[in-house]
Amino acid sequence: MKLWQKNGDADAAVDSFTVGMDREMDLFLARADVLGSMAHTRMLAKAGLLGEEDLRPIQKELRTIYDEIADGKFRIGDGVEDVHSQVEHLLTERIGEAGKKIHSGRSRNDQVLVDLRLFLRGEIEALCHDMEKLFGLLQELSEKYRSVLMPGYTHMQVAMPSSFGLWFGAYAEALTDDMQMLLAAYRVCNRNPLGSAAGYGSSFPLDREMTTRLLGFDSMCYNVVYAQMGRGKTERIVSQALANIASTLSRLAGDNVLYLNQNFGFISYPAELTTGSSIMPHKKNPDVWEVMRGKCNIIQGLPNQVTLLTSNLPLGYNRDLQLLKEVLFPAIGTVRECLSMAVYMLENITVREDILHENMYDYIFSVETVNRMVLDGMPFREAYRKVGLDIENGDFNPERTVVHTHEGSIGNLCNDRVAALMQQTVSGFGFDRVHRAEEALLEYADGIR
Ligand code: ARG
Q: Disulfide: which of 91, 128, 224, 381 matches 196 by Cβ 3.0-4.6 Å?
């Protein structure tokens, strides 16, 4: 029986088509749904819309359901449309009449909005921690191999000396920008849509400040119409943040595939982290990095999918929005998995220390040679010409020392400053305040037990 059914059964085909993957997707939202209901019912009681005698069993039972979710025991029944219906059904089944009162002053439309925002802020936090791990490892590798040189390319042609310190450090710094965008997405998520009801507010005197505070949101989505419009926009912003991370990972993966190639041979991994061929006995393939590159390239299309799904929707709730869940939720898991696989692989990387000793890299030192002549007093253009002619005549015998001292160069990576930048962004999230709010909701319900 659906929440909205008054009599008669729904058509089975319509039911299965419209519910689609929602039962699976809504399991992701279950924890958030219970937290939302804890806050909503306390607010109803405070506003005099729910008696204390009803609030107590509701809070107590919501706390039990919360534990069932944490223990993996929560299911959305076959005949039940979504998580919101399941929680209400459970409450009514277990505590009777009081369960039927929790939905005053809200709609599943704002309920799913609040669930999504609570869920997404939690996922963003997890992503942030995953990124911090990769960031820390990249910085560590950058420091460890700071003086190991490797070729730098332009136009995919050997260009100038680079280093493993620069290579690893570059990806660490890329993550600082990705983190900025993740923080922006977090800020967008962490606002309270509850109280917008079906999208036009309610005639009950709801205390939206109270639910905002109880749920640890930074502020509310004030305008009830905007609160509903925020669905799709929020997902797009989160998917853009995911796409940034994916772009960094995809390039890192691409580099690894290239540098593992025998013609480069800059890096290697233990055999067990590579994969073999069914026909060629010698193969040690970089499948992990290839699959990561592929997955991350798909993720980069995610903002487009969200955009297309939500383009030109009329104002107010539209059921199309439900499909955002199945586009976005698995993608978050994919990015998290890729972040942890990147750490898993890089913890085992070996870098070749003597790459630039090979003669094929002689010309990589051409600019170093020109610069040395300039430091000795020769005008740049003349030195450039002289070295160019030496190269053409086969008279170029470079000194293989590299002295770069300016900020961000081989000899002065500024990893500490990059770390400070990352730290500053991460501290902007303020996860502690959100944890305290969520813990307080649970403690309140515990107190009632
Ligand atoms: N499963 C629905 C969704 O994700 C929940 C909201 C349903 N609202 C409605 N008016 N049918 O959008």
A: 224
Question: SS3 of 160, please?
Answer: strand
317 within ligand 1 shell (Cβ under 6 A): yes
pLDDT for 422 equals 98
Other beta carbons less than 10 A from residue 56's beta carbon: 16
C-beta atoms surrounding 101 within 10 Å: 17
Q: Which of 186, 183, 148 is nearest to 167 (CA)?
A: 148
Distance 109 CA to ligand 1 centre (A): 6
Which residues partner with 192 through β-bridges? 220
Catalytic pick among 155, 282, 357, 406: 155
pLDDT 10s digits, 261-318 = 999 999 999 999 988 878 777 878 899 999 999 999 999 999 999 999 999 999 999 9
Q: Which residue from 109, 111, 229 has its CB within 8 A of the most atoms of ligand 1, so it is best to mutate? A: 109
Q: Do 334 and 292 form a contact (C-beta atoms < 8 A)?
A: no
Quick one: CA dihedral 100, 105, 109, 113, positive or negative? Answer: negative
Q: What is the Cα–Cα distance from 92 to 324, expressed in whole angstroms?
A: 29
- Residue whose entry in the numeric block shows the structure tokens 């993550």: 175
Task: Look up residue 135 and give its amino acid.
Answer: F
Alpha carbon distance 105, 207 (integer Å): 10
Q: Is 322 in the pocket of ligand 1 (CB under 6 A)?
A: yes
Confidence at residue 6, expressed as pLDDT on a 0 to 100 scale? 67
